[in-house]
Batch of 2 targets.
Target 1
Amino acid sequence: MSKQLTTVDVVSANLGDKACLVKAFEGAHAVFGVTVGLTQESEEVQGRNIVDAVRAAKVPLLVWSFLPSATEVSKGKYTTIRVRSLLIASYVPFDQKNAVEKSISTVGQPAVILNTGWFADNLLHQLNPDPNNSKKWNIMFSLRRETKMPSVWVGADLGSIVTAIIDHWEDESWKQRLMKEPIAVAPYEILGGKQAETLANVTGKDVAYVQQTEAHSPHVRQTDVHQQALKDLGNFADEGLFKYPDHSDLLKKLVVKTDSFEDYVREVVVPHLQSTE
């Protein structure tokens, strides 16, 4: 991003080509780093390339979307966590994204680290018609209905949060505060059962939450590795290991208005369900 956000230049770059990234980043005031799954290079390699290119191009600020190391948080108990395990069998972003965060510290790149939590946007992949009742919908996920997940509506909130960080970056007091520790940009926690309850209340439809102990989805490949990852993700969250500190006051001081799960349901899920009728 340029310092003045009144204009946007679109450039092409390959996350696997560091030299290409350096050229793309030249003159940028800030870079928001996002890696891509299911490509030739792992997310860790892509992330390290972004970090090195940002440093080489002398970009003042890197904003990095971060996940904790599941291996470290669980003290080696969970090593196969896939944050999108319901959708893609070979995604392993928890530890890979954590490794990139360590790389940022090693090279000395000024950066703001964001903990994004679970994406409300994933709900459309989890919401399926009940096979035995055409008037009923099921939210299918690996967590127990009583498990809380820190969450964010990426499509509505993440861009405004990143923009607010960039706008405050040149204020030295804000800079130190933003760099002090990873910032949780998960405005709310929600239970799986509460998701179903909210959908039912807003849409007037019969909605249930179904804990998925096996992968029964056209979006995933049925493999033993994936099944174990699905189980581990559920256990990881059930044991309270996927939990962030409350940074809502910080977001308010950045003058960022965030959205609730109900907002997401009204603006995205309702039109989606209407389109299926």
Target 2
Amino acid sequence: MKVTQCLDDLEQNLWHYIRVNDFGFLEIIQNIDEINVNKDDILIHKQIKEGDLFPIIRYHLIKRDRTFVIEKAYVKALLSDKLVEFVKKNQKLPYACGIKNIFSDGRIQIDYTPIQDVSFSLKIIPEDYDIKNSQTFFEGLKSSTNPITSLNPQQHIQYSKNRWSVPSSSDKSKIYTVTKRSDGSFSCTCPQHIYRRAECKHIQQVKRSLL
């Protein structure tokens, strides 16, 4: 399908993809004109306005040849169902999932955080999934690796005018977005640039490529 056919009120072409069956996560969709997706997968659309620390986010549920804008609560409910299915089948936690809290009534909170600003707190109620003991059901489970192949960390790819994706050198599953603003300055979605307002190595890498 074409990501450009997914309609909402945002303008920037900054998209993430969640493959819900195994929690595979794609931080940057390189070819927004063609992506292979499955029914019930999730597309996350972001728009980062200049000067803002946090993006505006819209969630899209894929249904055959079209998508529907949904609320984050629906995404969390869908991921909760898929998480239990994954654990029963594989005896391990999906990618980027970690146990946050086990409550006295048996409920369990598992956080799915594939990147810093994409995070879902999933609340599992044992009775809803025929789980007799949530603590023993999840005990000792390790998180899987990202089943979606990452980019070569030495590469940077320009995927639209004045915008580049730059993989992290320390974590191959993370890819940051460098943008050249209208005034000639650069911004990056990595934590160092967002929170320290410093020129990060991803911006420096893009600048070197433009020389």
